């Protein structure tokens, strides 16, 4: 994560994990089911395009949240799936029953 994103707080609403950067948002839509959190869609405001890090920062902060809260991840979002594939140490929080687990 780029240093400029490290001190930005992760905000959890009823359906999103979100960070705000210079008044713009990067977020992940999620569903929470007991001990699992399904991440379904990652998006950033167009004004954050080109930073290359806002989406990665919200993903990393969300993964830390999931781990810190003893939850298991279901990475349905293609961006999150690719992020974990690129950073395989995060596979530790993916639920082993996830359909694409063996592809990570």
TrEMBL record:
Keywords: Transferase
Residues of the N-acetyltransferase domain: 9-95
A Pfam family that the UniProt record links to this protein: Acetyltransf_CG
InterPro entries given in the database record: Acyl_CoA_acyltransferase, Gcn5-rel_NAT, GNAT_YJDJ
Domain of life: Bacteria
PROSITE patterns found in the cross-reference section: GNAT_YJDJ
Entry-linked PANTHER family: BSR4717 PROTEIN, PROTEIN NATD1
Protein name in the entry: Acetyltransferase
Source organism per UniProt: Chryseobacterium soli
Biological classification of the source: Bacteria, Pseudomonadati, Bacteroidota, Flavobacteriia, Flavobacteriales
